[in-house]
Design brief:
By secondary structure, this protein is mostly helical. The chain contains 15 helices and 2 strands.
């Protein structure tokens, strides 16, 4: 009798006995991706930015990135995750998961533990305001930086994240943003641009030498960003599957193409290729492929990367040399423009009817390139305008709270390392 019952049991579908548990493969991949994305900020972005400023300001940039990472992490725990990823309404989530209320180590988000999903998304919340540091480097008070970046996270990043990834109104329209073209790059780029305009140019901009003090550090940071970006884009599949694999592949191709395109343009325009140019082109390629990475083919990734290198290069020249806007480390022309370009091209190359350049289908109820591109444009414009308005208002409020956003002329001349932190980056 016992043997008969065992035989019957073995014939039953496995699902009859399945328990709701996390997928070990997916969990392992997102654990790895989470570490990679945090690695992008600390130390990748910190070193990339730190090498680009003058030696008297290197510690200030590292400090800003580090402090923002810490503050953003606590905000994400207190209410950020809940406001971004709970149901709420079309604009913002609710407070049902404040301090991760109700979330245990057994809780699931899809096929992975929910604490892991929380941590993975936390790394995006960390790097986005940190990216803005490049827009106002070398001249903003440390107190102003912290208040602006952390309140900006609450007022800008959390709503936009909910709109796109948390089931908000842009998600309902079928906006395609695989890993953060709108959520990360447009918001950070626009926030940095507005800050640069409100604060004004560095003393000596356009007349004095403001060259990077340590390109070796910058290249090292760039390499960390490239490697970390595999977690950024590949991890956004939230599974160890073909989507993650293809996202990694197109990310690499776009970065390589963006690097060579930017380098070539510099070579033709100025007579010599620069190290700064090739790594900046890499970042442009990475940022531009981000929203499209899970939706497009390798051939499309090549086109997107080449487009990023060319368009972001000329936008950088336009903003810095023609318009004379001191976006110190080119956050808007690289990340902002890259995010806009990538979000638009995602709407084109997602089409399954482009032959070699075919992608993996439209979002939501969209049935054509025209439909999808229209939604992408709506997403770009709404995120751009919302970020610009809120960032401007917030900067004005912070200016009142800190009695001015900017350090005085003497302090700026001395450098922020000594004046703000009483330390030097180098004691040679």
């Amino acid at each position: 009798m016992r043997n008969w019952l065992l035989a019957v049991a073995l014939l039953l579908p496995c699902s009859a006995f399945a328990q709701e548990t996390a997928d070990s493969g997916d969990t392992a991949w997102i654990l790895t991706s989470t570490a990679l994305v945090l690695f992008m900020t600390l130390p990748g972005l910190s070193f990339f930015y730190g090498g680009l400023v003058r030696s008297k300001n290197v510690l200030s940039v590292l400090m800003q990135c580090f402090a923002i990472a810490c503050g953003a992490s606590l905000i994400w725990l207190i209410a950020g995750y809940s406001l971004a990823f709970t149901e709420g309404n079309s604009f913002i989530g609710d407070l049902s998961k404040v301090f991760l209320d109700g979330v245990t180590k057994e809780s699931l988000s899809g096929t992975i533990p929910e604490p892991l999903f929380f941590m993975f998304q936390l790394t995006f919340a960390v790097i986005t305001p940190a990216l803005m540091v490049g827009g106002f480097a070398e001249r903003m008070k440390f107190s102003s930086v912290l208040i602006f970046a952390l309140v900006w996270l609450v007022l800008v990043y959390l709503p936009v994240c909910h709109w796109v990834w948390g089931g908000g109104w842009l998600a309902e329209m079928g906006l395609l943003d695989f890993a953060g073209g709108t959520v990360v790059h447009i918001t950070a780029g626009v926030g940095a641009l507005v800050a640069a305009l409100v604060i004004g140019n560095r003393n000596g901009y356009g007349s004095a030498s403001l060259i990077p003090h340590n390109l070796t550090m910058t290249v090292g940071g760039a390499g960390m960003l490239w490697v970390g970006w595999f977690g950024f884009n590949g991890g956004s599949a939230v599974a160890a599957n073909g989507d993650a694999s293809m996202a990694m592949l197109v990310t690499h191709i776009s970065a390589a193409a963006g690097s060579l395109a930017w380098m070539t343009l510099e070579w033709l325009k100025y007579g010599k290729p620069s190290v700064l140019g090739i790594v900046t082109g890499m970042v442009a390629g990475l940022g531009t492929i981000t929203p499209a990475s899970g939706f497009v083919s390798p051939a499309a990734g090549l086109v997107i990367g080449l487009s990023a290198g060319v368009i972001c290069f000329y936008c950088t020249v336009l903003i810095k040399q023609k318009w004379k806007i001191d976006d110190s480390l080119d956050v808007f022309p690289v990340h902002g423009v890259g995010g806009i370009l990538g979000t638009l091209l995602a709407g084109v190359f997602c089409s399954p009817d482009l032959g070699l350049f075919s992608g993996y289908g439209f979002g939501g109820d969209n049935a054509s390139i025209g439909d999808q591109v229209t939604v992408q444009i709506i997403g770009i414009v709404s995120v751009f305008v919302y970020t610009a308005v809120v960032s401007w208002i917030l900067l004005k409020v912070v200016s009142v709270l800190t009695k001015g956003l900017r350090v005085d002329t003497e302090t700026e001349h001395q450098g922020l390392d000594i004046s703000s932190h009483d330390e030097r980056g180098y004691n040679l």
